[in-house]
Every structure is written in structure tokens, then in C-alpha cells.
Amino acid sequence: MTNLEQNTEQNTEQTSEQTSVLITGGNKGLGLEAARRLGERGWTIFLGSRDEGRGRAAAGKLTAGGANVVMVPLDVTSDESVAEAVRLVRKHTDRLDVLINNAGAPGRVVAPADATADEIHSVYDTNVYGPIRVTHAFLPLLQAADHPRVVMVSSGGGSFAVVTDPEQPVSKMHELAYSSSKAALNMITVRYAQALPKIKFNVATPGEVANRAFAATDMNNHTGVLTVTEGTDSIVRLATIDADGPSGIFVDRLGPVAW
């Protein structure tokens, strides 16, 4: 068992009913599955969803399964929406134990020669500015927690080591927006971790880099060979690390990923 797995096991012994988590993009895919798994631990789930109807439907399913869920209308590209989300969460709690920045946009996979600043900006608004916007807004609630954790959901495509490996499929996916946005998110996470040592900031990718495998989600038209549950293994593991766990690391479900 790795140190990270040991930390996870130890953390499950804590009083889970007092643990709260906000998950952006929580109405489907990896976000919804992470919510389901953490809800089974007795956590309070603040389910962020840009589409309020889909969010309420997803929250209803989780609630029917026994989870304690509060649906939070949340568009990570909107300052006003994020501010309203903070107000809503504050009505239920005076602290936030875990933030999972899961909401992401793939872009249109535009070839580098055809990519424009507008194309890059639209992806960065969700994948880079979004996590910054949400993290900044929720920092006071995170800092009020005894053992706060932030999980950034990235991608192997954000790793220079992966993208420059000719054996990796992503090395042949010629686009600028998505991979560069995830590389930026990785750096942002490290800088947060260095500057705010009382909060655990870590990066998860839902794939298996060594096996060149992806989790099946809407983003890849469900062509991935890993299940959505397997895809959330790294996310859940980082969300449940204990106070002695690592900060500023990048992992998939098998272990560390090279930057």
C-alpha cells in the first residue's frame, strides 16, 4: 500500500458526517460519480451545476441513493454565479472541507495553425480562470476548515512528459487549447500549494498514463476503456487524504504522474 493509500484509509476513520465537499461540474460524468462515492461516505455534497435543471435531476438521484446533497447553481465562468454559490453554501455551513474543481471544457480540437485567441480564451475561461475564480471565492470557507483540501481535475494531456512521448496518443492530438489549459492548471495548483501550506492542493488525472488509457466520459464520446468509477479513483483518493498527506502532487489512479 502506498503512503497516499494509507493516508486515505486513515482519513476514512474520521467523522465523515461532518465533512463537506463542493464539486464543480457535478451533474454528470466524473463529477457526479465522485459525488456519489463521497456521498456514500456520509459527506455533505454541494453539487455544482451550470445547468440548474440537470443539476437538480442529478441531485435527486444522489438523494434517492441516501446522499446528503445540496444542488448549487454554478457557472465557473461567471463571477456573479460563483459569488452566489458562496452565499448559498454559507447558508448551510461555516466551512468547506474539500473543493473539487472538476468542471472542464475540451474545446473544439482546433489545429494549431487554425487556432485563434478566441478559441483559446473560451477553453481557458473554464479550465484555468474557472478554478482560480472558484478557489479564490471559497478560500475563506476552506481556511475555516480544520483540514482543507483542493483537488484540481487535470489531464495527462497537461503533462509535458506525456505530450512529448511519441508512444502516448495525446502526442498526436494536435491542438492548443485543452492541453495548454491543463498545463496551466497544473502550474497554478503547485503555486497554490507552495503559497498556502495549510491547504492541500493536488492534481488528479482520471486516466492511466502508463497504460495510455482514458476514462469513458462525454469529453471523449465515451471511448475510454476505463469506467467512470475507475476515472474517479484518483480524485476520491486526493479528496480523502489526511492532514499529513501530500500537497502539490500530480497523480492518476496508479500513482504519480510526471509533470
TrEMBL record:
Residues 1-24 are annotated as: Disordered. Gene3D superfamilies: NAD(P)-binding Rossmann-like Domain. Signal peptide: none annotated. It comes from the Bacteria. Keywords: NADP, Oxidoreductase. Residues 1-20 have a biased composition (Low complexity). One of its GO terms (molecular function) is oxidoreductase activity. PANTHER family: (+)-NEOMENTHOL DEHYDROGENASE (PTHR43490), SHORT-CHAIN DEHYDROGENASE_REDUCTASE (PTHR43490:SF99). Belongs to the short-chain dehydrogenases/reductases (SDR) family. This is SDR family NAD(P)-dependent oxidoreductase. It comes from Nonomuraea zeae.
